[in-house]
Amino acid sequence: MNARKMLVLLLALALCFGAFGIAGCSSDDADTEEEPVAEETTDEATDEAADEADYMLITDGKLIVGSDTAYPPFEYIEGDEVLGFDVDVANAVGDVLGLDVEFKTYNFDALIVGVQGGTEFDMIASAMTITEEREESIDFSTAYIDSNQSLAVANSSEYTALADLVGEKIGVQSGTTGEEYANNNLPEGATVVPFENILQAMQALQTGEVAGVLNDLPISADIVKDESRELKLVEEITTNEQYGFAFSEDNTGLRDAVNDALDAIIADGTYDEIYKKWFGERP
């Protein structure tokens, strides 16, 4: 092979390897450009899923609710079922969030400690008034219903107002705003008698153990509708209270999700239907 032929052969080989080199680089560049796009899409989907369920639950797929289930018409037990306004609203919220809802019964004054621990239940739904004192230790949802205080007495009683109960015993439920109001507005010589739940307080009123019961208006109004109790409401006390669902301060994601769900059931009319079922037309 002469020098001229050798030079031609070398040039041909150089061009061939150069072509393969370029092709190889082009393939690598394409892979490099496509992979970040795929990874970005995956990350975005993960972020969206996290946003949809950015909260903690004791049991996946289930919203466990702590409640004093002796507080009709908001929550009460009939047979094996927990029924009431709060129950229906909580179930509607669960439907929006795609969660099963389970109610657990606790004494009212144990609910806050129970939700703080994060191991007993995820949320409180128990006709709980939003107060500054409670907000120091737990978080509340947006308010979902209004309330005032009221005084119930026996049908045979001549008392017509809290101020009349001078020297008398006044029944309340322990840990409630009714107990707080009674202590702050106690008639001369009167004493406050706390009970574990409101039904026990009303029973004490029926038997004459106490002369009156101070309690949230919607609950007392529902209880005295039972004529066999021989009780009546004689005073509505304006306190401008509002109820909210309550959460651990460490679970703001669940609070926010429940707020969004409350907005949804108000917007689509579900809330109004529940309200009408338990209280009639909304005021």
List the SSEs and their pairings:
Layout: H1 3-52, E1 62-67, E2 70-71, E3 75-78, E4 81-83, H2 85-97, E5 100-105, H3 111-117, E6 123-124, H4 132-135, E7 139-140, E8 145-154, E9 169-173, H5 177-184, E10 191-195, H6 198-207, E11 212-216, H7 217-224, E12 231-243, E13 246-247, H8 252-267, H9 270-279
Parallel strand pairs: 1-5, 1-6, 9-10, 9-11
Antiparallel strand pairs: 2-3, 3-4, 7-13, 8-11, 8-12
Helix pairs in contact: 2-8, 2-9
Care to describe what's here?
The chain has 9 helices and 13 strands. With 283 residues, it is of the alpha/beta class. The strands form 4 sheets. The protein has a 5-stranded mixed sheet. A 3-stranded parallel sheet has the order 5-1-6, sandwiched between helices. Strands 2-3-4 form a 3-stranded antiparallel sheet. It is globular, with a radius of gyration of 32 Å. The N and C termini lie far apart (108 Å).
